[in-house]
Amino acid sequence: MTRFAYVNGRYLPQDEALIHIEDRGFQFADAIYEVWSVRSGELLDADGHFGRLERSLAELRITNPKSRAGYRLVIAELLRRNRVRDGLVYLQVSRGRARRDHAFPAAQTRPTVVMTAKRLDPAAADRRADHGVAVITRPDQRWARCDIKTVNLLPNVLAKQAAIEAGAAEAWLVDEAGKVTEGSSTNAWILNAEGVLVTRQADHAILHGITRSTIMNRAAALGYRVEERAFSVEEAQTAREAFMTSATTFVTAITSIDGRPVGNGAPGSVAIALREAYLESL
Ligand code: PLP
Fold first, then answer.
1. Are strands 112-119 and 4-7 parallel, antiparallel or unpaired?
2. So where are the chain's domains?
3. H-type helices in the chain, by residue range?
4. Which InterPro entries match (predicted)?
5. Which ligand 1 atom is nearest residue 52's CA?
6. Quick check: 187 pLDDT over 90?
7. Which fold has domain 4-120?
8. How far is the CA of 99 from the centre of ligand 1 (A)?
């Protein structure tokens, strides 16, 4: 089946969906992106992701080329053309095409908008969550504004590859103080010995995950205490549970960190309960 992408107002077969070599996203990673999960044809946490999209653009002073309604129309058409009921929507907005020069181009330069949609099997993700995953740790080598969702993901790419090569699913990034910031594409959580859920505060060192904030609310509603603070690798390794959150993994239990089992080495009951609570609320 031909997959269709949206590029600057046109729906094209993905092989023909091209951007210019002087697009600033390609030249400088001068672009932001968003990812929505789709279940039963619905975008999950839609407004949270739109809000972060608007914030990322504003932080980089890229003019938002569309309203939420405008994006939603394109998303609906892409889901239809690609026959996606369960899967992902990817959106990227760059500062546009201009002769290569570091400084911003002329104010009338039109941002480039690219969107794609793909199908995913929800059962495969559920099976992975049933088993839990291993993570390794890596030094956090990113810049000082990880709260902006830019396409500048090279340190994340290298960390994820290191994880895969080590037989793990994710790399947790560790700052100079020895504290976990987040995963290469997920937020990091533990349930400590006192039964408190801990996840790093939403500062400039992490992406403010939309799933992270939904899970914070769900956890509080279920009566768990949530503390937003940094935790060390050792604290995580000796925690009762560890898990990660993201639009694509929802809540997925972590069963080992750098080869050391977390808890009894099986997915923890709180991680499982939070995943169920998240998916039930859809
Ligand atoms: N942290 C990083 C670095 C990410 O790339 C992502 C998602 O792509 C997340 C956290 C999770 O964010 P969200 O829950 O909004 O998907």
1. antiparallel
2. 4-120, 125-280
3. 24-28, 46-60, 68-81, 122-131, 154-165, 210-221, 233-237, 269-280
4. Aminotrans_IV (IPR001544), Aminotransferase-like (IPR036038), BCAT-like_C (IPR043132), BCAT-like_N (IPR043131), Class-IV_PLP-Dep_Aminotrnsfr (IPR050571)
5. 15
6. yes
7. D-amino Acid Aminotransferase; Chain A, domain 1 (3.30.470)
8. 32
Q: What is the pLDDT of residues 88-135, one digit of tens each?
A: 999 999 999 999 999 999 999 999 999 999 999 999 999 999 999 999
Question: What's this model's pTM, rounded to 2 decimal places?
Answer: 0.97
**Tens digit of pLDDT for each residue in 11-35?**
999 999 999 999 999 999 999 999 9
The token pair at 171 is 């790399």
Superfamily of domain 125-280: D-amino Acid Aminotransferase, subunit A, domain 2 (3.20.10.10)
How far apart CA 107 and CA 127 sit, in angstroms, is 49
118 catalytic per annotation: no
Q: Is the beta carbon of 185 within 6 A of some atom in ligand 1?
A: yes
Residue with CA nearest ligand 1 atom 3: 185
Q: Whose CA is nearest to atom 5 of ligand 1?
A: 185
**CB-ligand 1 contact for 37 (6 Å cutoff):** no
